[in-house]
Amino acid sequence: MAHLFEQNRNYVLGDPELNLIGGHNKLAQWRHKRMGPAFYRLGRKIIYRGADLNAWAEAQRIDTTT
User: Fold this and answer.
1) Among 7, 10, 12, 66, which residue is least crowded by beta carbons within 10 Å?
2) Which residues fall within 8 angstroms of residue 16, CB to CB, at 6 or more apart?
């Protein structure tokens, strides 16, 4: 399986790669609703692990052949 995000990298808000799954506002809505990929909140900083982003993206995959 190809990964959309680097497995061992941490992503913070403002990283352009996060736009693949949603903009800043969409990610904020998901965090508020406890949806979307797992994240860390360290003070005011939000951090997404690449492995968590890949796992979440894979869970969103829709197989149209079944």
Assistant:
1) 66
2) none
Residue-range domain boundaries for the chain: 10-59
Query: In this model, does residue 58 exceed pLDDT 80?
Result: yes
Q: Torsion-angle region of residue 14: left (phi > 0), alpha (psi -120 to 50) or beta?
A: left
Torsion sign, CA atoms 33, 30, 49, 40: negative
The pTM assigned to this predicted structure is: 0.89
**Three-state helix/strand/coil letters over the chain:** CCCCCCCCCEEECCCHHHHHCCCHHHHHHHHHCCCCCCCEEECCEEEEEHHHHHHHHHHCCCCCCC
